[in-house]
Amino acid sequence: xxxxxxxxxxxxxxxxxxxxxxxxxxxxxxxxxxxxxxxxxxxxxxxxxxxxxxxxxxxxxxxxxxxxx
Length: 69
Fold this sequence. Notes:
By secondary structure, the protein is an alpha+beta fold. The protein has helices at 41-48, 51-62, and strands at residues 2-8, 11-21, 27-37.
């Protein structure tokens, strides 16, 4: 399991990602987000803006060099 903690002036968030192998050999990633902050919509928006970069980093971290041709 990978854990990332994000601190923003409006929110503190924890993102957890864990890979799981499917029966057919493919992989899936389960992601959960816990956020604490002021005025719920604003901090969630701030964290959501960072999620694409977190996803990219998680995929890079999970990439196995043996899988590349």
